[in-house]
Design brief:
six-stranded antiparallel beta barrel; mainly beta; Membrane-bound Lytic Murein Transglycosylase D, Chain A; globular; 19 strands; six-stranded antiparallel β-barrel; about 40% strand; about 15% helix; Thrombin, subunit H
């Protein structure tokens, strides 16, 4: 009698135990399963690299797509080789408003507020003849690529060209010159006056031969040693400093206000890691490394305030303009957006 009554009781206990085990297993599995969250506002978070991490894995963890790893690499310029990252180093990872991000709940970083964009460790390394700029000079009195050897529509590295230089230029074999292209005139977005011409830095030519023709004209033969874009007959050849320099944060003590004056037309989006030109330069006290906040005026300035768009940092300074790198963009930038210096 007692044994018979115990059977259903034991069965119920076994079933309850199994149910609790399954529930616990499901709970533990849920902790380790990828989770999603729609980000309410754009922010940058710090992630501490763990042993065994790769940018590929971290991209999968945050974005649900490992192929987005270059997005993380670009935001962390201290990483010289993306195949080598080290435990305990910090990574900045951008979370963009409205995007659904994926992560493992057990490795979820704490992010309650946007990180400081101006990390003291920020740096950007470039060469002085690789940054585009705006200039009053049209460079018509400089050297010029007059022809090429390879009958190629597009010229680049390893192509050979003929070029001329002004008579007063003391050209020696082995000399390296910078190739420029002068483009359209830029007008101030508010005042309308000319700021100068956009000048693209295209690459470099090394002099390998010099020939004096029967008419006395000297023509040089040169090899294109590097190029950032295609080079063409008619592009200018100039003497230009080639020193490498590093841009670090250098906040100014001056209260500077200006505008985003120009960026290359025809692009669908201008945002982080793109270069733009601003209407402030040496005459205004701008220096390399100065940072600016970008603001956009409202549709009705008499009733509504402007709003924050992003940040930029100056990488080259000319007399009346500067070239700047966009380091943060919450919205697509527009010519005419206002800029204000981040004061030290």
């Amino acid at each position: 009698m007692k044994a018979t009554k115990l059977v259903p009781v034991l069965a119920a206990l076994v079933a309850l135990a199994l149910t609790m085990t399954w529930a616990a297993a499901e709970t533990n599995d849920a902790v380790d399963q990828p989770k999603t969250k729609v980000v309410m506002e754009t922010s940058v978070v710090d992630y501490t690299i763990q042993s065994g991490d790769t940018l590929w894995d971290i991209s999968q963890e945050f974005y649900g797509d490992p192929w987005l790893w270059p997005t993380i690499w670009e935001l962390n310029p201290y990483i010289t080789d993306p195949h080598w990252i080290y435990p305990d180093n910090k990574l900045k990872v951008k979370l963009v408003q409205g995007t659904e991000y994926v992560w493992k709940a057990s490795q979820l970083p704490q992010f309650l507020a946007p990180a400081d964009w101006w990390d003291p460790t920020f740096y950007y390394t470039t060469r002085s003849n690789r940054v585009d700029f705006i200039s009053k000079d049209t460079f018509e009195e400089t050297g010029e690529i007059v022809d090429e050897i390879d009958d190629s529509l597009l010229l680049g590295e390893y192509h050979t060209v003929y070029f001329t230089m002004p008579e007063e230029t003391n050209v020696q074999l082995g000399d390296i010159f910078t190739v420029l292209r002068v483009r359209e005139k830029v007008r101030h977005p508010e005042e309308g006056g000319s700021l100068g011409y956009v000048v693209d830095t295209l690459g470099e030519i090394e002099t390998v031969n010099s020939t004096t023709l029967k008419n006395g004209r000297v023509v040089y033969t040169g090899n294109i040693t590097n190029s950032t874009t295609e080079i063409a007959v008619g592009d200018r050849v100039v003497v230009m400093p080639r020193d490498t320099y590093t841009v670090t944060l250098n906040k100014t003590s001056l209260d500077l206000k200006g505008y985003v004056a120009y960026f290359e037309p025809g692009r669908h989006f201008y945002g982080e890691h793109d270069m733009v030109f601003i209407d402030l330069g040496l005459k205004d006290g701008v220096e390399v490394g100065n940072s600016f906040s970008i603001w956009r005026k409202s549709k009705n300035e008499s009733r509504l305030p402007g709003y924050f768009v992003g940040n930029l940092i100056v990488v080259r300074v000319e007399p009346t303009t500067s070239t700047a790198l966009i380091t943060n963009s919450l919205r697509e930038l527009e010519v005419g957006d206002r800029i204000e210096s981040d004061i030290n």
